[in-house]
Amino acid sequence: MISVQVQLTDIEHKNGKLQVEINSLHSKQKRDDNTIKRLYSEKEKLSEQLVQSEKDKDELNQKNVIQQAQLSEIEQLCDRYRKRNEQLGFESEQAKLFREQASNDIAILKAQLVRVDKECQELRTQQLDAEQQLQKYAFEANNATNQLKINKEETKDIQIKINKQNKQRV
């Protein structure tokens, strides 16, 4: 009778240890679930940022094309007026003002073009950074998912052991 009592106490003690271990694994599983949710949320935010960066880049590229066309048009106008003035043999005051204005417009458009090119480069850099960050979070999410699977298997194995011990006690 005492031997059975000792065995029962030993089994209850082991059962308690296993229950503590199960609780610990459940806690780890909850943390892993929260980590996965957080990583997926961050991944989603980065995906949205990436889409927005693409839109911004496309808009800047469109502006760049328009400004290039405007610059070309202004340069053509300057050349046309210069040739006309040479043919006439004189430069009218109005043509001088137009040429100055066109030169100023060209300088402004060139400065804008440089700025747009710089912004495009920054967007490309941001896009690369976002893609790298996205890959990192995807890798972390995959690792967390794998760890969660391992923890679930361990929990299942421990639960099977407890069930066997409980059946043996009965």
DSSP, total strands: 0
Q: Which percent range describes the beta-strand content?
A: under 5%
Q: According to CATH, what is the topology?
A: Helix Hairpins
Q: What is the N-to-C succession of helices and strands?
A: HH
In the predicted model, the low-confidence regions spanning at least 5 consecutive residues are none
Largest sheet: none
Estimated helix fraction = over 70%
Give the overall pLDDT as a whole number: 87
In the CATH hierarchy, what is the architecture at level 2? Orthogonal Bundle
Radius of gyration: 36 Å
Number of separate helices: 2
Distance linking N and C termini: 15 Å
Domains (count): 1
Can you tell me the CATH class? Mainly Alpha
Taken from the alpha-carbon principal axes, the silhouette is rod-shaped
Subunit organisation of the chains:
single chain
Q: Label the structural class.
A: mainly alpha
Account of the 3D structure:
This protein is an all-alpha fold and 170 residues long. The chain has a single domain (2-169), classed as Helix Hairpins, CATH 1.10.287.2610. The protein has two helices and no strands. The chain has helices at residues 2-88, 93-169. α1 (2-88) packs antiparallel against α2 (93-169). The longest helix has 87 residues, at 2-88. It starts with a helix and ends with a helix.
